[in-house]
Each structure stands twice: as structure tokens, then as C-alpha cells.
Design a protein that fits this description.
There is one protein chain. The protein has 281 residues and is an alpha/beta fold. It has one domain. The chain is 44% helix and 11% strand. The model has no long low-confidence stretch (mean pLDDT 93).
Length: 281
Amino acid sequence: MTATLGIDLASRAKKTAVCEVNWVDGHALPAPPRSGVDDDELLELMDRADWVGIDAPFGWPDAMVEAIHGFANGRPWPTDGVPERLRYRTTDWHVHDLIAQERDTSVWPLSVAADKIAVCAWRCANLLSRHAERTGRPIDRIGVPAGAPPAPSDAGLVAPHGIVEVYPAGALALWALPYRRYKTTPSIPAAAARAARGEIIGLLRRDAGSWLVVSEAVEHACLENDDHLDALLCALVAYAAATGRTLPPEGHRRKTAQREGWIHLPSPDTILNLGEPTSAT
């Protein structure tokens, strides 16, 4: 059995949701997602999971870090180049370009350099640091070994443990599922967002088939809270990364991703067969 943990991280415990999923004989068995999880409990959950998927940036754009460091040390603020390079990481550009290519639509992750998600990233950095201290494993902002084939185990894991950055809306987009308007906002009423989540859950169950077992309790939790749905998606993508079915950085991007972080997006066809062993097992 393999256990994955999905964390929809927020700046505060109240809005932070988690979902634990056990993978048994080709089936994903999620526990009902829940929210209100503080750092100490998150670390305990991370300790007992084999793989963890966190919806939060694992780093900041190199260009932004360099600009701030230089300005703090008396150098002028850079005025050349593309301003978006200060806002977006290499992985953010990759997510946008890949989804545009695959689905002909524009999706941008929130900018860790210029959005409120920066506060969430501070909390994530603290969690990753404390987890590294507890386990003795160094912080790895990519999470998946370079070019490593799945280990010879019944689950086909590329490594026994891993923590990866994930992006639920991006995963939905690549799986050709609705990825907008499922969160309650001032412009999206709660009833409309709930209906959108219901559609997502129904299509997810339809496309996943028998490998995804969604109990009434899990469905209810996801219908009532968009953070819960995101946490479930984080746990599913964590397993895709664990079995080598996400898209890792290649070439020169890998070195950059070791500093900035890397969003793991599932291969588009994983929605159909994620519970099945990989061909390398």
C-alpha cells in the first residue's frame, strides 16, 4: 500500500485543507478531506505519508530574488528585460505554455512574487525546512529524481518518499475537466461554485472509472468546501508524481527548478489509468 497526502496550503490553518489517500490494489481510497490544520499536525501527516503534494509555491523567481538582493545592496533596480520575468517562475511559464498547447486555453498560476500567495509561500518554506530537519532528508524543490526509472516495487514508485509542488486547477485543465468557477468569490456565488464542484466530481468519477473510489463522505466534503476538493486533487497528483506520470523539468530547467520550485502536472491520460501499475514495474 502507498499513502499520499494532499495539502491545499493557505496562510492560516483555518483555510488549510488536507486529504489522505491510500492506494491499494490499483484503487485510490481517499479519506474525507478536512480543513483547519496547523503546522504541527501537517508535519505529523507528512511524516506518515509516502508522497505529499502541496498546492503552494516552493520558491521564488530567480530574477526577482536577484533584483531584490541587488537593490538591497545598493544596485539599481533592473529596468531591462521583460517585467513578467520578475513575476513568474520558469515553472509558471511552463504551466501556461503546456496548457495552452494541450487545451488551447490560458491558465496562469498565481504569482508568488506579486500576489497574496507570497504569504502562503513563507509558510510552505517553513514547513519544508522543518520537515527536512525532522527526517534528515534535504529540501528538494523538484521532488522527482532526474531520469530515475520506477523502483522495482509493486507500486512502481520512482522513490520511496517525495514532496512535490502541485496545482489543482492545472491538473483539471490537463485532464480536460472544468477548472474555473468552482471557488466561491465575490463574483461567483456559493451555490454556483458548489454546482461547479459537483460537475467536476461527477466527471472525475466518470473518467477515472474504477480506480478512484469516492465515498459519500468524500463527495460531501468536496461539495461543501473548494479547499477540500483541491486537497483531494493534490493527493492524486502526488501519486502521479510518485509513479513517474507527471512532467518534470528537463535540461537546463532542472537546475533553475532546484531553486525556484517546479509544479508537477499530470500527463493528460493519467485520469484514465492512474491506479494501474506503470509499465516499468
